[in-house]
Amino acid sequence: MTANSLFHMFHQEGLMSRGRKAMAAFALVALVATGCAKGSATQESSAAGKTTVKYFTFSAAPDHVTDLDKIVKAFETANPTITVRVETAPYADYFTKLQTAVAGGAAPDTFELNYENFVSYATSGALMDMSAETAKDDLSAYAAKSVEAFKRDGKQFALPASYSAVVLFYNKDLFDKAGVDYPTADWTWDDELAAARKLTAEGVYGDFQPVQFFEFYKTLAQAGGSFFSGDGKQATFDRPEGVAAAKFLLAKPGTVMPTVADIGGTPDFDTNLFKKGKLAMWHNGIWQFAGLKDVPFDWDVVVEPASTKASAVFQNAVAVSATTKNSAAAYKWLRFLTSSEVTAQTRVATSWELPPLADPKAYAGYFEQTPPANRKAILQAVDTATPTPVIARQQEMQDIVTKALERAVSGKSKVEDALREAAKEVTALIK
Amino acid sequence: MTNRLIYAGLTVVGLVMLGPFIWTFLASTTEGGVVSWPLDPSLAAYGRLLDTMPFWRILINSVMVAVVSTALQVVTSAMAAYAFARLRFQGRDAVFVVYLATLMIPMQVLVVPLFIEMKTFDLVDTYAGLIAPTIASAFGVFFLRQAARQVPRELDEAAVMDGAGHIKIFAFVVLPLMRPALATFAIFAFMASWNAFLWPLVILRSPEFMTLPLGLANLHGQFTTEWDVVMAGSVVSVLPILVVYVLAQRHVIASVARTGLK
């Protein structure tokens, strides 16, 4: 077959018209892609006399999107001139997205931040100083400590939005079976370890506390130590208190708790262990309550054992972007979102963390719900909350500490050495 | 006997490759996502998947974006490939090398400048902004240029004798003979768009534009994750690409066989 006849063959088959059709189809698709592309956001903001406030959040998806909707609807009913447009992203990817938007000058009007990230956003100038608004406002509805946590240099850069606390979960049935008394608020580390040893049996682990940064800074505080020196310029967690805290954490894996090898990276290993009734004590957060509703055994919670009480409380806050054009509407929305009755009731009713409010009436009903019976333990945890150590290069610091603990738990280095090296690295990060 | 051994070996390797998919499927039908014996299958996770996100909308988005992006990429890459393979113009090779060099720049580096560019064009949170950066593909140009160069020049010359210009030569001589390469590249482009995460994450805001990888990521909470629902989402999102792949793969093999006969 010659090339010439090949060309004619294609021609005769009517490929030309087919080709044209294909081209036309491409052009059409491209048109559709650009034509119908504008989001409804732009349409809404063009409506007469209406302000659109964008709110970017990580804590709503996947389980509380409809709950947030309820709060938005209530706000819009009370403020008919403001429309709130919610955008969500999963926690793991949220900050990639937010960072790009802020760097690209397209930050959403309002957005959520956890405490660790709040500090770097506030110091980088991405957040609006709310002091002008808060000066005219009465913030006494919030728990004072929470409001204080989101101040920098006397300026209010965010409003507290919610909090969760870490407590000690325990399986009552396993305690009964082993003949061990239930944990109380007076328990110390030694009580916990002694009970854990008695509770550990064939197929049952006595205790579970992950060996990582978040457990370490808390146990460090329980040991009476401090993560940084007074002027905040030096990491001091390698002092004897830090060694004691690390040793307390390291005493568990392989004796009363599964080892890293046992866990093998299985997601939610500890959650499933507890749910199956094979774990007696479990250090975890109150966000687990909802998932434990239907387990076939009795369980309760208590404030974490320690001679000096110190608890981890995770706080989320909401901030206004420094570049927003709707600061008044944005502030109004955040005030409603964080302190309205609708929000408090929605959060309590759906176990969506807790509202950061001072008035115990805001939690009405929360402490009557069971299980667990001892929900008051949360208040004890909040009273003894120890702030998360935060620096600008947060993630690196957390990784350094967690890796040092991992080296120690695997026996690759002595606890003292691992902590000393980590402290040196963290001190270098601060500078 | 040796045949049997080969089959046995291939079966084992095949099962190993299939392992993750089988596990994903089993986990999606198991409460909590932790597979244990005996199996206790339930489709509850699929129901919850449909409840927690506008799944069909997300699926249609993904399909539409992938189809449009693939179609545009194939067209632009094929045209550029023809130009680089057939036309002579000043600085052609230098331009091509620079073009290839852009392959070395990872997306992570480009995200912020690209975002600012899209914002300048007012394309943030639009399908157009999502698709635009994918339209021109350096890899596609490189890949298709190789294929275009393999088409004998004598065919062009014969077409010229028949009075064809570049457009006709491109559309009716070179393009049809590049079909296997086009199909292969189309698969690559489709998969890249289907799996794209970082750029859609950054450029999209409105939930109604969400694509599947974003939807799946949204199933992870700050503190907890329902793994069976995540696995159910993974299963459903793998199915379409599997279909596309199987169909296109047959086409590729057929095209390769046909050109081999020439």
From TrEMBL, chain B:
It is found in: Cell membrane. It comes from the Bacteria. This is Sugar ABC transporter permease. It is a multi-pass membrane protein. InterPro entries: MetI-like, MetI-like_sf. Keywords: Cell membrane, Membrane, Transmembrane, Transmembrane helix, Transport. GO terms for cellular component: plasma membrane. One of its GO terms (biological process) is transmembrane transport. Signal peptide: none annotated. It comes from Sinosporangium siamense. SUPFAM superfamilies: MetI-like (SSF161098). Residues 59-248 form the ABC transmembrane type-1 domain. The keyword Transport applies. The chain crosses the membrane at residues 5-26, 58-84, 96-116, 128-148, 169-192, 229-248. Its main location: membrane. PANTHER family: ABC TRANSPORTER PERMEASE PROTEIN MG189-RELATED (PTHR43744:SF12), ABC TRANSPORTER PERMEASE PROTEIN MG189-RELATED-RELATED (PTHR43744). Belongs to the binding-protein-dependent transport system permease family.
